[in-house]
Structure formats: C-alpha cells, structure tokens
Write a structure and sequence with these properties.
Helix 3 packs across helix 4, helix 6 packs parallel to helix 10 and helix 10 packs across helix 13. 45% of the residues lie in helices and 22% in strands. The protein is an alpha/beta fold. The longest helix is centred in the middle third of the chain and has 18 residues. Strand 11 and strand 12 form a beta hairpin. The radius of gyration is 20 Å and the shape is globular. It folds into 2 domains: 171 residues, Rossmann fold (3-Layer(aba) Sandwich), CATH 3.40.50.1970; 171 residues, Dehydroquinate synthase-like - alpha domain (Dehydroquinate synthase-like, alpha domain). The protein binds nicotinamide-adenine-dinucleotide. The site of nicotinamide-adenine-dinucleotide has 30 residues, from helix 2, helix 4, helix 5 and helix 6.
C-alpha cells in the first residue's frame, strides 16, 4: 500500500502516516509504535456506525486484544462527564501503563482521547486515527488535547503527543459536505500563513486530498517542532481564529468552526492594510467563496470586540492577532485592545 510518512520530533517523536486505505492495515501499522499491548478504541456514534466494525476486526486479526468506547457524535461530547466515563472504562477494562488508547474519529474524539491518555495512570500511549479533514490536518498533529467546560471551549487540556498518527484519507469520502468544508478553511489557512505554493494548488477545486493533507501536516509539524508549547510561532496557526472564535461564541456555536474561521480570516485580511501590511482581501475572499463559504460577518464590530475581550490570546491590554504580510507569509501582531476596537469599526 502506498502512503507517505512524516516524522515529528517533539517531546515525544512519532510518525504520521497518510494514505488512502490505511484502515485496512491499521493493526500492522501501529505495532512499531505501541508493540504488543491491549488497545482501548475511543470513537463517536457516526464513525462507529460507518467504520466501527472495520477497525475492531482489523485490530483483532492483527492479534490485538481491543475494547471500544463510543461517545455520541458532536462537540457536546467533549466534556468532563465523558472524560470521566472513559477513564472509568479504561480502569474497568484493566488497561495498564503498557497498553494504549486509539482515538478514532474527528477532533472531538482526538481531543478527548488524547486528554484521557495523558491522565490515565499518569499517561499511557495513544494513537490518533483522524477521520475528518480538520482532524487530519490540524487536531491530530501537535499534541494539544482538551475538553470543554461550562466556562468555555478547550479550557481544560494538556500538551501530550501521540505515539503515532495513522490518517486514512479515504475515510473522508463519507464526510457530510459541510464538515469537509470546515476542514478546507484550515487547509486554506495553512496556505495563507506559510505556503504560497500550497495556496496556489488550492485553486484546483476540489484539491488532491492526499498531497494537500500531507503538505498541511508538514507545515504544522514544522511549526510545532519550533514551538511545541505554544509560546511563540505556533500562534501563527491562529490566523482567522481570534475573530473566528468570537463569531463561534456569539452564535452559541451555531456557526461551525470552519465557517467562523473563514469569516475570521477575511476580517484579519481587512485589518492588515490598516496596520500597514498588505491587502489580500479580494484574493482570499474569492477563494473562500469558491469553496462555498459565506464570508459575511453576522455581528457588529462592538459585538466582536466584546467577545474578544475574553479571548485566551488576550494578555493584559493587548491581544495577539495574526495578520498577512503576503499570501504565504503572516505575522503575529500585538494590538492594544482599544486600537482593535477602532480597527474593527472600520472593517465590519
Ligand atoms: N487539538 C487541536 O490541536 C485541535 C485543533 C483544531 C480543532 N480541535 C478541536 O477539534 C474539534 C472539531 O473537530 P472536527 O471538525 O473533526 O469535529 P468532530 O469530531 O465533531 O467531527 C465532525 C462530525 O463528523 C463526523 N465524522 C467524523 N468522521 C467522519 C467520517 N469519516 N464520515 C462521516 N462522518 C464523520 C463526526 O461524527 C461529527 O459528527 C473541536 O472540538 C476543536 O476544538 C483541536
């Protein structure tokens, strides 16, 4: 079987395998990373009904003893109750420190599975098997894990690198169009922040999935290797996210993450020329529209501003925003919060 391997050198080094059809040899693929052990597969109800039997059959025929825990599909499952329920399941199944968790699903499963693995017995190995485009290019790479709590999204988490990522790009064939498009927003983001050549490739709609996923993973890998714990350059990955998070929050998460990031990238692009940086608004907007995004902002400047005041990226009187200097070249700018309010009034 043809697949690409991208090596990550972080606090734990691991390989990311990317190719169509990898699920059919998942058991053999994970052996170098976890050896002979028992596996606890975490998945969600949608992925379970599509691929639950395939993964379990394959793991068992590769000689693994495997158990499975299924959470309801959706962001609401990334919660403390499910974290505790899964930890209890691991204990009831008597998983030991030499066993491993397999997070088989989108970003929700990946984040919950990773956090559980970092906590159970003070840390067991885990494998990411992403099944959404977003999880493949973003959440399965880099070791950020989290759950949501009532006070906010992703407020409880850890940095905990997987032992391997196995990305079967064929699994994305069954994604609903809107969920696939959400991932496309992240892919476009990578082009804008760090890779003009990738950005140009994305003008072929739909893009060639395997090579584009691999390029995005390489970009994220390069960023994470320089700044694993998110104290500097990793902030570039937040292009469009600061404003996007505000829109998600204002919509009470009715606007999906990718749709909000698309709107957020356009706001950031509009702010850039007002800060003396380049103007990519037309170029970026037309590409996002080709991917089917509605790039209008449904909220006023003051609503966005007020939502931003509680953003994680706010430090004292400034807030860190990623702005484009050109397609393929972005920079982090610390803007005083009052200045941001004035800028938003000019662009929204
Ligand atoms: N850890 C990180 O670095 C990081 C980065 C970005 C996003 N995230 C997190 O990722 C989450 C979003 O991830 P997501 O967009 O993958 O959401 P998700 O996990 O909720 O998946 C989206 C939907 O697609 C379904 N699905 C998954 N795979 C499928 C398949 N192959 N076929 C059909 N349906 C399938 C799921 O059941 C779900 O209904 C958020 O919680 C976000 O905070 C984490």
């Amino acid at each position: 079987m043809q697949y690409r391997t991208i090596a990550v050198e972080a606090s734990r080094s691991y390989n990311i395998h990317i190719g169509a059809g990898l699920l059919s040899s998942i058991g053999d693929m994970i052996r170098p990373a976890v050896g002979c052990c028992r596996l606890a597969v975490l998945t969600d109800s949608n992925v379970e009904s599509l691929y639950g039997n395939s993964i379990m059959d394959n793991l068992r025929s590769a000689g693994y003893e495997a158990c499975k825990f299924v959470i309801p599909a959706g962001e609401a499952s990334k919660c403390a109750e499910n974290l505790l329920a899964f930890l209890n399941f691991l204990a009831a199944e008597r998983l030991t420190r030499s066993d491993a968790v397999v997070a088989f699903g989108g970003g929700v499963v990946g984040d919950l599975g990773g956090l559980s693995a970092s906590l159970y017995l003070r840390g067991v190995k885990y494998i990411q098997v992403p099944t959404t485009l977003l999880a493949a290019v973003d959440s399965s790479v880099g070791g950020k894990t989290a759950i949501d709590i009532p006070a906010g999204k992703n407020l409880v988490g850890s940095f905990y690198q997987p032992s391997m990522v196995c990305c079967d790009t064929a699994l994305m064939d069954t994604l609903p169009a809107e969920i696939y498009r959400d991932g496309c927003a992240e892919v476009i983001k990578y082009g804008v922040i760090l890779d003009a050549a990738l950005y140009r490739l994305l003008h072929d709609v739909p893009f060639e999935r395997e090579s584009v996923v691999a390029r995005c993973v390489e970009i994220k890998r390069d960023v994470v290797q320089q700044d694993e714990f998110d104290n500097g350059i990793r902030g570039l990955l937040n292009f469009g996210h600061t404003f996007g998070h505000a829109i998600e929050k204002l919509s009470d998460f009715g606007v999906s993450h990718g749709a909000a990031v698309a709107k957020g990238m356009v706001i950031a692009a509009k702010v850039a020329p007002l800060c003396g940086l380049c103007d990519i608004v037309e170029e970026l907007s037309s590409l996002l529209v080709r991917y089917g995004f509605d790039i209008s902002c449904p909220y006023s400047a003051s609503e966005i501003y007020n939502a931003l005041l509680s953003d994680k990226k706010r430090r004292g009187g400034t807030i860190s925003v990623v702005l484009p200097r050109a397609i393929g070249d972005c920079t982090l700018v610390d803007l005083p919060v009052e200045e941001l309010e004035t800028l938003l009034e000019k662009v929204i």
